[in-house]
Amino acid sequence: MGGFSTPGGFSTPPAPGITLTDKEKIAAGSEFIDSDKVTVADLASLLEAEPDVAFCARQVHANLTLARRNAIGPNLTTPNKPLTFADEYTWKTASSPSTVPSGIGGDSTTIWHCDNKADQVYELSTTDFSVVRQAASPSTYPTSIGGDSTTIWHCDADADQVYELSTTDFQVVRQAASTGTASTGIGGDSTTIWYCESIGDKVYELSTTDFQVVRQAASPSTFPKGIGGDSTTIWHCDTTTPDKVYELSTTDFQVIRQVASPGTAPGGIGGDSTKIWHCDSIADKIYQLSIG
Length: 292
Hints:
This protein is mainly beta. It is about 10% helix and about 40% strand. It contains 3 helices and 22 strands. The strands form 6 sheets. The chain has a 4-stranded antiparallel sheet, with no helix packed on it. A 4-stranded antiparallel sheet has the order 4-5-6-7, with no helix packed on it. A 4-stranded antiparallel sheet has the order 8-9-10-11, with no helix packed on it. A hairpin with a 2-residue loop joins strand 12 (about 185-190) and strand 13 (about 190-195). The chain is globular and about 50 Å long.
């Protein structure tokens, strides 16, 4: 790729290793990118917040530094340190639509959310977490939701049911009895379902055809609360003290990495290999967390 012009009119080459798209209307000098160890994920997340603004190299550097200073994730001990796994993008944290947010999932372009106070399911904006649309949940204790832009997986602890919901109107497409009696987490994508339940402290892969167990393993700790991701990635959280956020192996559900959660009552987690969406049931907050 050749050089490109900044808003000020001067030209500069793109930083090595960073591919610019139409959305990324920026000019970034490699000396700023390399010296501050800015990751492509950091850059894309900042640009997502202001996609229509063209930044010059110094503005990109300044804004990314500010984003890192404002991130209060548990691993961020120095202000200029690049974001690491599960650091909080505080400039994207927002209040949940209602109290007791219990589940969240989706992918890089879509967020599905539910709560067990208003008993609602929602689509949220990936930009500011505002409500795009909402509907009543199928039963009275929605505990988790996930999927991708084409599929919604949902579970309810009162009904002890697992559902596929329509992405159009949130109506039930199909349902089956849940595995166990305390379904607390569900997510995945159109080809994969990740699931957890808190009585047996287990994590599972379920069949997308009939919701039967494909495989299972013990959860990393007690009271697994949320799970999501896609066919290549598993994000997980639990409400054991200390409350944690995990990446699990898709092969055997073993812990790849873990860190303390941003709040004290992780409610749900999901996303895909490029995004982590998270909610906390006591803070009543929705978060984007860094993939590290």
